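Encode chain A's predicted structure.
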Amino acid sequence: MTQKSTPYLAMTLLAFAFIGLELVIFLIESLFYGSMNFAEIAEQRGVTVLLIHWGMTCVAWGGGAWFLCKWAKRRGFNVFENKSKAPALNWIIVLAMLILAVIASYFSWDMRFKPSAEFAGFAKLFGNRAVLAFVGQYVYYVVESILFLCIVVFGQKFGELAFRKHNIPWGGIACGLTWGIFHIATQDLFTGIYCAIISVAFGAVYLLLKRNVRYTYFVIMLMFML
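Encoded structure for chain A:
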């Protein structure tokens, strides 16, 4: 670890901590609702509860991502500056990875396509207001994907500065060691391993797309949402 790399390690860990802000928001909400069972609260009070929760979470996440990008820019690393275009072969590999991610998601959702399964769940809970819940959920995913991108980008920068190797998906490894392990602790081993593998894929996509955050974000978002 070097003096130049340390701030990017801090940015990587902060990006993951910002994801965890949702838990803080949930705890604050539980004081008002008088319960820690959020699924039960939503079922009793309706879709508005979910929309308020997702809205506050998205504001917190968006603010966190904005802060990290500004911090990096002050240190001379503008994450949006790189506009390199990846060769066709790299795009073919990325497309194959995206297809594999969707297939893996299909199996993890008990042979169901994730968006359709989630919509069916909302329809069962909220009836004709399921569309509102579905749209709110996917806006939430869109914003969450920004923080995954932050972990990948700043984790990659840290790894390259600390270890002087540029062709290893350090950002994906960082995402797996944070987001993946968190899911092992809070859910189960299978979910944690799945999240760790998809995290490394995020990092590989960033390298394959020549560190262009615009293209990388779009692919990461699809891999996560589908």
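The mean pLDDT is 85.
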